[in-house]
Amino acid sequence: MNDKLSVLTYYFYYKYKKQFSDRNALRQWQEQKIRKHLGYVVEHSRIYKGRETLSSCPVIDKTFMMEHFDELNTVGIGREEAMEFAERAERQRDFSPKLKGVTVGLSSGTSGKRGIFLVSDDEKNRWAGYILAKFLPGSILGKYSIAFFMRADSNLYQAVKSKNIQFHFFDIYKDMEEHRKRLEEIRPRILAGQPSLLLMIAEDVRQGKTEICPRIVISIAEVLEQADEQRLKEAFGLTVIHQVYQCTEGCLASTCSMGTLHLNEDIVFIEREYLDERRFVPVVTDFERKAQPIIRYWLNDILVERREPCGCGSPFLALEKIEGREDDVFSFQGEDGRKVPVFPDFIRRCILFADKGGSEYEAGSAGDYRIVQETNGRLTVYADLTDFGRKRVLEEFELLSKYRGFLLLYISLRP
Length: 415
Fold this sequence. Notes:
Low-confidence stretches: 357-366
Structural class: alpha/beta
Radius of gyration: 22 Å
Number of strands: 19
Strand content: 15-25%
Distance between the termini: 57 Å
Largest sheet: 12 strands, mixed
Shape: globular
Mean pLDDT: 85
C-alpha cells in the first residue's frame, strides 16, 4: 500500500472509529490493544523479553531509553548511528533521508536532555491519518493549506502532503521577515506552531504587518498559557485555539470541538502518578508504536484534570491544562518548618495577576518572563518591568506566601 492510500485508510479509521459508551468500555478496549501490542514487542525487543503483562514492564524515562536504545528498539538501529544520522540532518537542514527505511529525529530537549525517536513508515502514516482526522475542519477531499512552524522538518510531517493538502514547513531558525512574506503568499487555512511564535504572528496581524486569516490555529511544543490563548483568539477572531500535546513519546492529547484538551486514549494508555487531588505525572504506554516501543514511559510533566466533564461527551479524560514539568515545582520552607511545594501555575499567576493591577505594567508584548529559584530558596524574576510592575509583582508573591503558608526569603527583580 502506498503512503497516500495508507494515510487515507488511517484517516477514515480514526474519523469514524468506534465510539465508547463510557470509561469502562474504553478501558476494556485498551486492555485488548495493550495485550496485542505486548505480544509483538516481547518477540522483537530484547529489553521486553518475557514481559507479557504491562505490570511486569519497568517504568522507564528518557535516560533509561537512551542508555538501552539498542536493545529496546525493534528495527536493529544503534544509538550512535541514529544520533549521528539525526545530527547530520539537523546540520544540513535536510530531513528527507531515512535510516534503514526508518524516520529518525531528535527531540527538542525541553527537559534538558535530547532524545532520539524512531518512526516506521506505517507509524508515520498512522500519525498523519490521526492528525488529519482530529483537525481537518471538513472533508479530507477539500483543499487545505497548512503552515507548520517547527525547529526541524521530518518525513513524519511530510506524510500529510497530498494534491489537496499542501503542507508548508517553516524553519524557525530562519528570519521572521522571510516568514511574513511566505505566509501572505500561502494564506494558510491552518496555522500550527509554538505559542511564542504564534503570538509574534498574531501581533503582526493586529498591527497590519501580515494579512492572513487562518481558520484553525494549533499550539504545539510549548505550554499554552490561558492569557496567551486569549490573545490568540482575539487576534485571529477565533473562539477556539487548538492544542496538540505531543512529544517524542507520542501524540498524548488534543483539543475537542469545544476547546477542551483531552488525553488521546484511543492511541495511548496513561497511568497517573498523583501529586495532589487533580495534578498528576503521566506514565505513558503507546499501544501503536512498534519501531521504538513506548511502554510505561514516565514523563516529567504535570497535567491537571478538569473539574467538570466536557460538554462534548467524550469519555477521554479532560484536562484543565498542562502545567509544566515536575522539576518546575518550587519548594519553600513552611511557617511550621515543613517543605511547601508550590506548583508552576501559582508562580505564573504572580506575574499574570500583576498585569491586572494597572496600565503602567509592561512585561513585553507576549508576557515574556523567567523565574528562577536558587538553591537557598531565593527567587530571581527576569522581566521587563516598570517601577509599578515591580511593586505589583512583589505584592503578588507576598499574597501567595500568605495563602500557601511559606516563608518568602528574598526576591530579586532583573530585566
